[in-house]
Amino acid sequence: xxxxxxxxxxxxxxxxxxxxxxxxxxxxxxxxxxxxxxxxxxxxxxxxxxxxxxxxxxxxxxxxxxxxxxxxxxxxxxxxxxxxxxxxxxxxxxxxxxxxxxxxxxxxxxxxxxxxxxxxxxxxxxxxxxxxxxxxxxxxxxxxxxxxxxxxxxxxxxxxxxxxxxxxxxxxxxxxxxxxxxxxxxxxxxxxxxxxxxxxxxxxxxxxxxxxxxxxxxxxxxxxxxxxxxxxxxxxxxxxxxxxxxxxxxxxxxxxxxxxxxxxxxxxxxxxxxxxxxxxxxxxxxxxxxxxxxxxxxxxxxxxxxxxxxxxxxxxxxxxxxxxxxxxxxxxxxxxxxxxxxxxxxxxxxx
Length: 351
Ligand code: LMR
Description:
The chain is α/β, with parallel strands linked by helices. It has helices at 2-29, 57-72, 93-98, 131-139, 141-150, 192-200, 213-218, 229-234, 260-264, 268-303, 313-323, 325-334, 336-349, and strands at 44-49, 77-82, 104-105, 155-165, 167-170, 185-188, 204-207, 224-227, 243-246, 251-259, 307-310. (2S)-2-hydroxybutanedioic acid is lined by residues 51-52, 58, 90, 108, 163, 189, 210, 227, 231.
């Protein structure tokens, strides 16, 4: 009996000791209060990856979009931006989006063409004589058809964002006539239409990711490239390329894409916030993409590091005549409906 009493007494002592020890142990491991962590369990994070610099139309638009989403959701939705290909390069980002490794991207149209060849319609040279022509294409039948093609890849198309028309730079000679391209090597985006454009001009295309372009130019692995002013400026291509032709021969814009299941997992209210923020950003970009490109062209001119030739209307016609066979060659991949519409828009806006 005495032993039983001692046994019960020892168990009570051991249990009380544990009760005393556990709170003091947990107070050692619990973190001090941090108001930034408040409500984090309710916060939704959307990772947005892109490949250009922060002070370009796309870089600034992504930041504006993130700010608008934070405001409209009272901080409940956070858009985390990864610029300059820090998360994924342009070669990786579409696959990463499909696999849900990133929720949002905004690639140049040309980057989609290896997955969906119909997107090449936007890369046809001189297809869009001005910004109004681009807008009519994207808001109308062309934009609608291209968005619908994304569905079978479980990608949600959300918006078209502007940048601007492409210009040509190179390190060998001024490019004025089509035959000035002869024998020169050009870095291109992956679109087959763009590669064929350079072949038709007698040049040699080399596909390379955007983040490698400066190195390719610097080490003379290619002689030139085509891009918007904002990319030529922000990535300092003009410092290693003594010749630039303002040709406006092709348009470079973006499509904002989201992983389909990430989109479907959002509540109706969250989707509404994203759409509203995107619409406001798209409107902002309409005026600002142009202003940014113009301002940066002025900076390039003032740097006096590059000779610039502005293509005349007559010279543009010569380039277009040279490139005309491309329209017939790519018709089977682009499809009759898109081809008919792009030609209608081209004719409407061509002076
Ligand atoms: C390029 O690869 O030259 C562009 O697509 C980069 C960009 O996203 O503007």
